[in-house]
Design brief:
Length: 180
């Protein structure tokens, strides 16, 4: 198991969802467990929770791999019960949250389930836009595997252009090449 390094909110990588949630504390007081407002951040594989959105150190982090997310109306008895969800993993701590609204709780659950599906698939995730595009490669060499991914990143959003044989200048959209 790899150790997750604590990171400030700004450095958590690809943030897929973030916002304030109430998290149920592990410690139970005389009145039962307490709900604490936390700034929560979800990236591709890790759930972070902070005291607030300006915090430098997270109060906690955990890998969401092998967890499952579901709405959990039984967590509260008050008017916010339809805003509750939990993250469960056999043999690990269960995390319980209350979102600001039922729709927001559903969105957190949907985002986490989407990520979990991605993490459990055997393929490496990539942008769906690139599905049917062959990587452009103008280098004819044995290390074309390395250059293919490099060129794909460079040409990803460029429209395809047809060049005249000896023309070394790029044709910009909306401009005609100068004829000599």
């Amino acid at each position: 198991l790899e150790e997750i390094m604590p990171k400030p909110v700004q450095d958590t990588g690809n943030i897929l969802k973030q916002g304030y949630l109430e998290k149920r504390s592990r410690e139970h007081s005389f009145f039962g467990s307490e709900w604490q407002k936390r700034w929560c951040v979800l990236n591709r594989s890790t759930f972070y929770y902070y005291a607030n959105e300006k915090s430098k150190q997270p109060k906690g982090t955990f890998s969401i791999e092998h967890y499952s997310a579901r709405l959990a109306f039984h967590l509260r008895k008050d008017s916010r019960k339809r805003c509750c969800f939990e993250l469960i993993c056999p043999g690990k701590r269960t995390y319980e949250f209350t979102a600001p609204s039922p729709a927001e709780a559903e969105d957190w659950v949907d985002q986490i389930q989407f990520l979990l599906k991605d993490l459990s698939s055997l393929t490496i995730p990539y942008d769906e836009e690139d599905d049917d595009e062959e990587p452009y490669n103008d280098v004819d060499s044995s290390d074309s595997v390395n250059t293919a991914s490099y060129n794909t990143a460079l040409t990803q959003d460029e429209p395809s252009m047809e060049m005249e044989e000896d023309d070394i200048y790029e044709v910009l959209p909306g401009k005609q090449p100068n004829k000599r």
